[in-house]
Amino acid sequence: MKIDQQQIADLNQKHSDLHKRQLENLMAVFSGSLTEKVINKLIDFQVALPSWALGAGGTRFGRFSYGGEPGSLEQKIEDIGLVHQLTKTAGAVSLHIPWDIPEDIHAVKQLANSLGIVFDAMNSNTFQDQEGAGKSYRHGSLSSVDKAAREQAIAHNIEVIRIGEQLGSKSLTVWLADGANFPGQYNFQTVLQHTEDSLKAIYGHLPEDWKLLIEYKPYEPNFYSTVIQDWGTSFMLANACGEKAFTLVDLGHHLPNTNIEQIVATLMMKGKLGGFHFNDSKYGDDDLTVGAIKPYTLFLIFNELVYGMENNPQNPPLAWMIDASHNIKDPLEDLIQSLDAILVAYAQALLVDREALREAQQTRDVAGCQEILQEAYRTDVRPLLKEARMRSGAAVHPLEAYRSLQVRKQLIEERGMKVRATGL
């Protein structure tokens, strides 16, 4: 389905007067040039949605369908198109292979293009055994002591690159589940060396204008050790591969209370932050809705991201993606909420008085530094988001519009209650 643009305009009109007053109040506090800068940056900001996030969620123990799920890659792209039409912030899709291999690449590209969607990073899968595969990844893939298993995993990543080239993607994300559950299960140095060699082999097949994004995770599915367990290991492997290899930060892939904003700052200073996966957590890799648990932490991370984007030209433009699990929510509603939280944190970070903060830091005014950051964080920036949406033709209140237009009901009428999303 596709939403009639006039329906969005009619819904926006209902909020027009209140929005104007709220925006005028905010602009009375901040200069017009600053608010215009923030609004324009919000309009330009695009976040990729992963193809695996459109189906029904649940927990590790069960999956709870809700009806109207996308039964094909094409329908997943159509759903992303709906979110993008309502928000104008979801203009990219990140495909997972082999969960979402296009059957007709030309047709899929045409569909995405018609919806204003481009193809972001490609994601390989060597954490599951695929039907018909000659070797199992039960004891590792790129790190395996079995050379044939490593070669199979390398070949899969090369194939993902080939598919991505045809779609117009420019990067490959590698996340390894490789690790051990018990001491002595493998030799740490041996598996790390295998991983480095495998990544170099994949890197050698990257097109000239591509990036290799190396993800990390401290635990799960293995609980004694993970081969690429932290940002330092990813950074080391990226350096070993070459200048087109970068570290990818996933908010859920850290031990509790890790200072993620410091990691972001360090990587950007070194020009090695390649991408960012948004989600939120209470305990571990919970993959909850962005900003649902720790909105201040999200703001502090964006504070470093904004500083890095303004002061670290050696770091390339970042690949942004939501990697969350909606659990028992309607996934489209969850994605809309996540996009909203991301834009709020980004806008707040753009309002930080950097000159005043720098002066307070130089004069060792610790309390002043905190006040400057919290002044920006406590600002209600939603009028800026609404103005950015209004100007770009999005819904001023995307979630409200989604519900008012009964999008889920229409999807159920089109697809039924029984269909199950492809892939995960």
From TrEMBL:
<feature type="domain" description="Xylose isomerase-like TIM barrel">
    <location>
        <begin position="101"/>
        <end position="287"/>
    </location>
</feature>
<dbReference type="GO" id="GO:0016853">
    <property type="term" value="F:isomerase activity"/>
</dbReference>
<protein>
    <submittedName>
        <fullName>Sugar isomerase</fullName>
    </submittedName>
</protein>
<dbReference type="InterPro" id="IPR013022">
    <property type="entry name" value="Xyl_isomerase-like_TIM-brl"/>
</dbReference>
<dbReference type="InterPro" id="IPR036237">
    <property type="entry name" value="Xyl_isomerase-like_sf"/>
</dbReference>
<dbReference type="GO" id="GO:0046872">
    <property type="term" value="F:metal ion binding"/>
</dbReference>
<keyword id="KW-0464">Manganese</keyword>
<keyword id="KW-0479">Metal-binding</keyword>
<keyword id="KW-0413">Isomerase</keyword>
<dbReference type="Pfam" id="PF01261">
    <property type="entry name" value="AP_endonuc_2"/>
</dbReference>
<dbReference type="InterPro" id="IPR050337">
    <property type="entry name" value="L-rhamnose_isomerase"/>
</dbReference>
